[in-house]
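STRUCTURE REQUEST FORM
Protein name: 3-dehydroshikimate dehydratase
Source organism: Pelagibacterium flavum
Requested output: structure tokens
Priority: standard
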Amino acid sequence: MKTSIATVSISGDLREKLAAIAGAGFDGIEIFENDFLAFDGGPREVGRMVRDHGLEISLFQPFRDFEGLPEPERSRAFDRAERKFDVMEELGTDLVLICSNVSPVAMGGIDRAAADLRQLGERAARRGLRIGYEALAWGRHVNDHRDAWEIVRRADHANVGLIVDSFHTIARKIDPQTIRSIPGDKIFFVQLADAPLIDMDLLYWSRHFRTMPGQGDLDVTGFAAAVAATGYDGMWSLEIFNDQFRGGSPGTIAADGHRSLVALMDAVRRTEPAIRIDLAPMPPPIAVQGVEFIEFAANETEAEDLKAMLASMGFAHKGRHIAKHVDLYRNGGVNIVINTEREGFAHSAYLMHGTCVCDIGLKVEDARATVERARALGAEPFEQPVGPGELKIPAIRGVGGGLMHFVDGKTELARVWETEFTPVGTLDAPDMGITHVDHVGQTMNYEELLTWLLFYTTLFDTHKTPMLDVVDPAGLVRSQVIENDNGTIRFTLNGADQRSTLAGHFISESFGSSVQHIAFASSDILETAQALRATGFAFLEISPNYFADLQARFGLDDAFVDQLRTGNILYDRDDTGGEYLQLYSRLYGDGFFFEIVERRNGYNGYGAANAQFRTAAQKRDLRGKSMPKR
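Status: completed
Returned output:
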């Protein structure tokens, strides 16, 4: 499979774009004409630069407003095309994109357009060049790939072919399956883009909100499968117009793009195994069975504060690492590891961020297969020296700089706790009703959110929920959830735009994106709250006004509301009768916190309606107390 990306898709000048695209593993580029015109070197220099990066120029684009024009505009269009051909020859590319005409003087007529393309095809052939015709979703007369194909078919020239773009087809709600009837050798080029579903002007939607495949809501997989079924064996290219990407890191956006293409075509071959996709084999998306452990990096002093906080939630010290300054704390099915080593990855994480979550361990069916898929998707495997008696646990570097380790139940990894930790203590943790990790809340700058989303949804067998705006007293935080169908893995991704929000404050003070909160599941949160009061747990105090309103909104009985108020427990109920109860710790450091939740009757949300009341309480807590600082 050969991959390409349009230079307009990422930020930077042309040199920066080429370096990022090559570094991400692409085979080629589409040179967007404005990027070429803004460059201070000639076309021959640009061609050399591209080839020096190990890339090819797969397409020069766009050539606008060509077909179906009256005179004298028609003659000028052919003259313009000849000048573009001159540039293409010097660049070293043989294919130009001609998009359907949007000029107000353009005349309709399939035969007229076909005749123009045939004549231009003759001129291109004399130079060894090709032209690809694309239907813009907002084209004046041609805005459907079926009409574009009919024009190409009637042009009947070996140097004239079709270019299809997922956005233009899907945005107009045209069935992509109609592509299957087009001969694959007449499809000269394929452009791919996703987008969130937004009801707006097609041109504005296209120019500002496209995303990488998998980051939006369009069925790009179905489109790509339809194209692949034709026997098409050319470039699979990304053409992304996105305001956020234009201001992002070229390297990150390019890496996201390559990952999205690999994952997309892997999904196509799994959807339709009969379709041949020239892509190296890789394991399927990984099913996650649960969170095996959460690891904190800390120094000795701050570790004591964290241990005290865990003890107030019923966590007991259960093990000490056989060779490292690493301690295991356990409650129910939750394992918390505190690492106070003075060298290695955890120590580096502490020096950078202060006390923080540096590692998440997930239980999967096959740990080594997980790293194999991650590597195929461009993730970086992680290894560090293993001492006597220690296991080599498969791991990768996640987004945000943290680690992810993987254990399974079919290898020696199933006995990691018995193998690497010496038991300590004889008492079991007090029964707090805590059973497992319900979800992990990760906070990042908003412009990073789509990167995190793509990382998780391409590696793991998960899906994303619709994006929500979480109200903070100082602004909005955009939140999106990555989860699987059975709820064994849930990540809440919170993208902060403003430093003044709690999420923004956390990113600023901890110097980067990270886990901001961990939610534990309780079998009975009312009993858990009662047990927590006995241990001296520091509850986040919720405004009494919240509980008075709660009773009126849901018609709850007085005794139940009193229990919620006493335990500082927030409450939500969905349309099917599912209930969600949640309580919070006070803040640790510069914004980290723990949450305890109970889901009743199949509730699958995260208490979004309560977010503004929780954040208001946390902002008061941040201003009004003194907690251990990083």
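Reviewer notes: The CA atoms of residues 444 and 513 lie 4 Å apart. The first strand starts at residue 2 and ends at 6.
Form closed.
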